[in-house]
UniProtKB/TrEMBL annotation:
InterPro entries: Allrgn_V5/Tpx1_CS, CAP_dom, CAP_sf, CRISP-related, V5_allergen-like. SUPFAM superfamilies: PR-1-like. Residues 1-132 form the SCP domain. PROSITE patterns: CRISP_1, CRISP_2. PANTHER family: CYSTEINE-RICH SECRETORY PROTEIN-RELATED. It holds the Pfam family CAP. This is CAP domain-containing protein.
Amino acid sequence: MHNAERNRLSLEPLKWNVHLEREAEQWARVLSEKGVLQHADRSTRNGTGENLWMGTAGNWPIETMVGMFLEEKKHYRHDSFPNISRTGSWSDVGHYTQIVWRDTKEVGCAVVTARGNDVLVCRYWPAGNVWGRKAY
């Protein structure tokens, strides 16, 4: 789904990175046990970006989870970060722009279930949403 959207925009496809997948899985375990969504500290992410999603366990297919990130494009405005949302809040499109960030080359995602929740974490290298730059 990531690469289908990138292809639509004529962007280079993301490569799957198993190390990012492992890091995403480790963080998803932490979040699923806590039952909250919270970005990992920047220093522990080693220059990676991060998209997070949480919902009731077993009720959401992965296509819906990632689809919610992609749905943010309806608010996207092609301008320099942080002026990238028609709503005035970059966080309303931040998942989408991370997916289509031109300079991002690799992705790894994982879903973990615990305490009644599914948690999806995707890690991106290098991180997108860079101040003063356009997504693509």
